[in-house]
Structures are given as structure tokens and as C-alpha cells.
Amino acid sequence: MQGRLGYEQTMSQIDSLFVTRLYRAALTEFGKSVDTAELETSCLSIADDDEAGQDWCEENGFPGYTSYASLVDLGWRFPIFKDLVKVLDKHVAAFVKDLQFDLDGKKIKLDSLWINILPTGGVHTSHLHPHSVISGTTYVSMPEGASAIKFEDPRSAMMMAAPTRTTDARPELRNFIYVAPEAGEVLLWESWLRHEVPMNMTDDERISVSFNYGWG
């Protein structure tokens, strides 16, 4: 029997709207990748030599080490980072294609790249990456049990009086998603997506290289 709107009265439909995309792949997805052992050695060497970065971390209460505020020329200092950028460019291009951006003749290109070394007990608090389009991280050393990256539902501020989700809610309905990457993987997301790294509970350092891509 047809209803007045032209569909079966017994049928209902629930759609998912406004999807948040997360890209995850091995660095080797597009052929030969960088040597993660060499990349790890380079990260540790740079951290040892970067006195300005060490001072910034101490002054700002940043756990462990980051080159974010001190070095903008990693590709020049160590060729392994130049090789890494070439690989990341391919992954970002694939993600941009999936996102179906209208680039208006412009390009999505790298605008910053930095090292993160998170020691035992270290955290990276919740944040986003303004002034960028695509952000991401590739994982250099991930000890067993090291912190997953935690993504927050971007609608959280608008939920107001809504009840919490059940513990077994479908992933796309949860308020937070935890992703536990492995060394040699890369994650990409749109830069407005808020994320954090909970406390590193292992006895070893968690090493990653993060980056932003802008449009212009």
C-alpha cells in the first residue's frame, strides 16, 4: 500500500550525515618507504643536539621533546626527512582525492614537519591544528602498549543535554575514538579534528613525526 508521499508506509530510513574521514596506511603503500630505523636514529640525534628545542620544552612544560618550535628545516639537516616528505606527499594526495576538495587550481602542500618524543608519563593534551587543511603523524617507534591517539567527535560542543553513549555503541556514534597505530604507519585527518595522546604508560619512548599541509 502506498502512502501519500509515494513510499511504503512500513519502511523507514536512517542515514549517516557529515562524515569525518580518517586515513590510515603503511608508509610502503606507494612503493619503497623510508628506513624507520634510520629515521628513529635521526630523531634521537636531532633531539640531543637541539638545545633551543630542549629549552622551549622545559620553559613550556612540554613532556619529552618536540622540534615544533625550534626547527623548520629537517629535510635539509637529514636526507631521511626529505625522503619521508616525498612519501607523505603521495599519501596526502590520495587522501585529498578521497575528500573531493575543489582546489581551484591551487595545491595542498607541506607547510610544517616536526619530531615528537614522548617519554614515560608524557601526554600531549587535546588540540587541533589551525591554519592547515590536512594534519597527520607517521609513527617511528611505538612500544607495545604505548598510547593510542584519541580523536574527539567534533560535534561534542553542540551535544548539550544529550545522554552519553553506551559502551558498545557503534564506532561512528562514539564521542571518542582511540586508534593504536604501529611503527611504519601514517595517519591523516582534516586539521579541525581535535585529538590528543593520553599518558605513555610504557617504559620506552614513543617517537613520531607530525606534519601539516596547507592550501595555497
Q: Can you offer a commentary on this structure?
A:
The protein is an alpha+beta fold. It has a single domain (22-215), classed as Sandwich (Jelly Rolls). 22% of the residues lie in helices and 26% in strands. It has 4 helices and 10 strands, in the order βααβααββββββββ. The chain has helices at 36-49, 51-59, 74-77, 79-99; strands at 22-26, 65-66, 108-118, 124-127, 134-141, 149-152, 176-179, 185-190, 195-197, 206-215. The chain has a 6-stranded antiparallel β-sheet with strand order 1-8-5-10-3-2. A 4-stranded antiparallel β-sheet has the order 4-9-6-7, with no helix packed on it. The model has no long low-confidence stretch (mean pLDDT 92).
Defining key terms:
216 residues, alpha+beta, Jelly Rolls, four-stranded antiparallel β-sheet, 4 helices, globular
